[in-house]
Amino acid sequence: MSEISRRSFIKMSAALGAAGSIVPLGSALGKTGSEKMMKDNPIAISTWKHGVPANDAAWKVLSSGGSALDAVEQGVRVPEGDPEVTSVGYGGYPDEDCRVTLDACIMGPDGTTGSVAFVEGYKHPISIARKVMEETDHDMIVGEGAEEFARKHGFKKVDLLTEKARSGWLKWKAKMSDDDDWLPRKENHDTIGMLALDAKGQLAGACTTSGLAFKIHGRVGDSPIIGAGMYVDNEVGAVAATGRGEAVIRVCGSFLVVELMRQGMSPQEACREALERIVEKHGGKTDFQVGFVALSRGGEHGAMSLVKGFEYALAVDGRNELFKAEYIIE
Ligand code: ASP
Questions:
Q1: Would you say 283 and 250 are in contact if contact means Cβ atoms under 8 Å apart?
Q2: Distance in angstroms (rounded) separating the CA atoms of residues 7 and 35
Q3: Active-site choice (86, 162, 191, 242)
Q4: pLDDT per residue as tens digits for the range 78-108
Q5: What is the DSSP code (8-state) at residue 190?
Q6: Is 191 a catalytic residue?
Q7: Structural domains for the chain
Q8: Number of neighbouring beta carbons within 10 Å of residue 21
């Protein structure tokens, strides 16, 4: 247990059931053998409530024998295209200059990755990231270069700023105070990160976001950074992050959780340990949110956040439900 675990200022949440309704996968399925789950039971796990419709799309792929990679791409395209989701894709809140800039990354079971950041005018950065992964020998393309790449690959340019997002920006601009309703911890952290395990036991992950609402023009968070916003190691597990990207980057959050799993921690223990590391790195001052979802190659899942309020969607065995995650700070 790390030093931070022993500190009394953190009120640890009670046992899993008390903080939320995490269902141990083994009991949900009536199976405990991880090898069996790995082969027989596809799983998709994703962040926040828009993870539910995203998981539905992923499940269609997984249940028809499709790959985890196709599942995560198809899954996260749902919130990317939904104008009501103000933290991802089309309809995402703009930056301080009222420009919607998007970030995304994708990673497959063979360790290949694709990522785009600071992209304007394209609804589905996750699919551009996949093109980077499959059609170039690069891992990450940003800004105008990524837009040009998208255009050349036939992606259609669109205006991403919805009326809802624009009026949110106007409200923020009018107030610009530290105690208004637009602080990151309140409602602006809703990146979708999705992890999937397919029927062949292959893992993949995707992460896509409009980033922090009203961020400085050009700011990029953790979400498109392989190892920070998302990471997949097919021999160990996969992890995705949401919340204050700067805090996740500082600890290479998703990579850290995977490495802790490699050392023998369960996905849930590994998420907790990484969150405690973040608290430590910030001297115990955490006025922000970070959440992780994790999936082991054996099909065990974990989900946890710094602060109460993080939710995740889990699709397994034909069921797709939203759960409240355990947290470490009240
Ligand atoms: N992690 C994202 C970022 O920092 C924000 C979020 O999860 O909503 O850009």
A1: no
A2: 38
A3: 191
A4: 999 999 999 999 999 999 999 999 999 999 9
A5: -
A6: yes
A7: 3-327 (3.60.20.30)
A8: 12
